[in-house]
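ARCHIVE CARD
CATEGORY: sequence design from structure
SOURCE FIELD: tokenized fold
FIELD CONTENT:
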């Protein structure tokens, strides 16, 4: 069984989609980010970056030994689950296709995700008076990444070509929420088409509906003004916790 440490956000959906697509059995472990669950010692032992998603696999894939296996960072989790399920990634022997998979997972982790995350911050959570410059800066950066995706999808149905893969699962959530981020997919028709095809998949629907009632939106929303523990972090809490995860 896989413990799935999850909150209903775009980064959480990436792994939820893969678990739903593969049917790998999982035990949902809700992480309440606004209550500081991500700083609990047990969670930091799995995810030293104090962020979800993270998993703890009690029956690790072949070759990983028998001790429960912690994995953090969605790209690493998706790669591990693809290996365990033997699905949604090109075979290791197809070196060129694997190189492309790495490129798009790193692209999502280093560009689309962080730019979308900052855009979300300035659109939804920053103090009203401080929103303008940050919003404009990250709207431009986010839409730049959407242009990269648009060019990629213009000539192929999925990011790696003909087959739906973990690269799509990784990039979908931040394209899915373009509108609530204050953007639009009007200038990115291939991305809009791809988003529609993924959204129609039953497993994707189940994933984005997972704990929907606990999303940080609507009345009672947490922002910088009422939740500095989440939105205004520095080094103090992590240095005090002093946990670096498990492993060699
Ligand atoms: N690059 C990470 C990003 C994870 C991430 O930013 N998670 C956020 C929620 S969307 C989180 O756990 N935030 C808690 C915090 O910042 O304290 C991944 O893709 O796994």
């Amino acid at each position: 069984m896989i413990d799935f440490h999850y909150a209903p956000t775009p980064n959480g959906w990436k792994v939820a989609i893969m678990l739903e697509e593969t049917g790998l059995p999982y035990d949902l472990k809700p992480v309440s980010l606004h209550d500081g669950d991500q700083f609990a010692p047990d969670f930091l032992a799995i995810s030293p970056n104090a962020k979800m998603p993270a998993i703890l696999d009690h029956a690790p894939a072949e070759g990983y030994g028998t001790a429960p296996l912690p994995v953090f960072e969605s790209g690493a989790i998706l790669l591990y689950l693809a290996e365990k399920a033997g699905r949604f990634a090109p075979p290791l022997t197809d070196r060129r296709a694997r190189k492309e998979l790495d490129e798009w997972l790193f692209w999502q982790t280093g560009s689309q995700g962080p730019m979308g995350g900052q855009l979300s911050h300035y659109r939804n959570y920053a103090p009203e008076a401080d929103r303008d410059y940050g919003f404009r800066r990250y709207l431009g950066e986010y839409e730049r990444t959407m242009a990269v995706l648009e060019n990629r999808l213009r000539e192929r149905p999925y990011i790696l070509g003909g087959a739906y893969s973990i690269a799509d699962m990784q990039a979908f959530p931040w394209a899915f929420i373009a509108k609530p981020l204050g953007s639009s997919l009007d200038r990115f028709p291939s991305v809009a088409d791809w988003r529609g095809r993924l959204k129609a998949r039953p497993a994707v629907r189940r994933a984005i509906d997972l704990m929907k009632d606990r999303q940080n939106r609507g009345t009672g929303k947490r922002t910088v003004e009422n939740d500095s523990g989440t939105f205004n972090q520095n080094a103090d809490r992590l240095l005090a916790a002093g946990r670096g995860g498990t492993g060699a």
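CARD ANNOTATION: Strands lie at 2-6, 26-30, 54-57, 69-72. The pocket of glutathione is lined by residues 9, 11, 33, 38, 50-53, 73-74, 109, 113, 230 (CB under 6 Å).
SHELF: design records, drawer C
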